[in-house]
């Protein structure tokens, strides 16, 4: 699978919902939330693993993912775009059907 | 529970101060902390993500009471002990 192919632009995704006991780049307000992939942003070492001082941090695709403010906070007409590593995301079949 | 640094979307902290501050440092020690961090990273003692993790791991009360560079210094001390560069308590007193 080529870089950025797993979640092409427009793919509905959902973020993970656990609370890692280490540094992560997925903020609390965006956990377990539905968003849409804007575009791939290139590959980068997974910060969550390198933050633990481990030398085996995988290099993953990072995606710009757009969230509607009302999906994050229940209100607001704007959007929030976050750069998120691939392993933070799963395809959101339900969201895709909406 | 998320960590104390993770306050995005939380109300009550007021507006973000975006004033263009001409002075990068407000005390000499702050500049020294920046130099110290650069030197330690260049030596490969720890990486940037470990540094961020150490800041985020501060006890919430201490984190909120500390200034920006005080957090940096606290994290550097934590990592130097964790990596065995200094002994626990070596910087005390």
How many distinct beta strands of chain A?
A: 5
Work out the strand percent of chain B: under 5%
Question: How do the strands line up in the largest sheet of chain A?
Answer: 4-3-2-1-5
CA radius of gyration of chain A is 13 Å
CATH hierarchy, class of chain A: Mainly Beta
Q: Which two chains form the greatest contact, residue counts included?
A: A-B, 14 and 12 residues
Percent of residues in helices of chain A comes to 10-25%
Main β-sheet of chain A: number of strands, strand sense, barrel status?
A: 5 strands, antiparallel
Indicate the mean pLDDT of chain B: 93
Number of strands of chain B: 0
Helical run tally of chain B: 4
Low-confidence stretches of chain B: none
| Helix and strand sequence of chain A | EEHEHEEH
Q: Which structural category fits the helices and strands of chain B?
A: mainly alpha
The portion of residues forming beta strands of chain A comes to: 35-45%
Distance between the termini of chain B: 34 Å
- Which descriptor suits the 3D outline of chain A? globular
Terminal-residue CA separation of chain A: 27 Å
Secondary-structure element order of chain B, N to C: HHHH
Q: Gist?
A:
The complex is a heterodimer of chains A (98) and B (93). Chain A is mostly beta strands and 98 residues long. Chain A has helices spanning 47-50, 69-73, 93-97, and strands at residues 12-15, 34-45, 59-68, 79-85, 89-91.
Description:
The complex is a heterodimer of chains A (98) and B (93). Chain A is mainly beta. Chain A has one domain (12-97): SH3 type barrels (Roll), CATH 2.30.30. Chain A is built from three helices and five strands, in the order E-E-H-E-H-E-E-H. Chain A has helices spanning 47-50, 69-73, 93-97, and strands at residues 12-15, 34-45, 59-68, 79-85, 89-91. A five-stranded antiparallel beta sheet of chain A has the order 4-3-2-1-5. Chain A is globular, with a radius of gyration of 13 Å. The mean pLDDT of chain A is 93. Chain B is built from four helices and no strands.
């Amino acid at each position: 699978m080529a870089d950025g192919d797993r979640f092409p632009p427009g793919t509905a995704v959902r973020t993970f919902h656990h609370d890692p006991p280490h540094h992560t780049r997925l903020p609390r307000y965006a956990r377990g939330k539905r968003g849409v992939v804007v575009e791939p942003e290139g590959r980068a070492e997974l910060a969550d693993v390198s933050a633990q001082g481990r030398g085996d941090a995988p290099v993953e695709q990072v995606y710009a993912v757009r969230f509607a403010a009302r999906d994050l906070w229940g209100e607001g007409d704007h959007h929030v775009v976050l750069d998120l590593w691939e392993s933070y995301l799963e395809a959101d079949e339900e969201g895709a059907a909406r | 529970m998320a960590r104390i640094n993770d306050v995005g979307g939380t109300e009550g902290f007021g507006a973000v101060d975006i004033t263009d501050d001409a002075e990068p440092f407000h005390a000499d020690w702050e500049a020294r902390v920046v130099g110290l961090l650069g030197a330690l990273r260049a030596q490969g003692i720890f990486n940037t993500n470990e540094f961020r993790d150490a800041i985020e791991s501060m006890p919430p009360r201490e984190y909120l009471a500390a200034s920006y560079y005080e957090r940096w210094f606290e994290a550097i001390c934590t990592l130097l002990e964790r990596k065995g560069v200094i002994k626990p308590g070596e910087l005390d007193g």
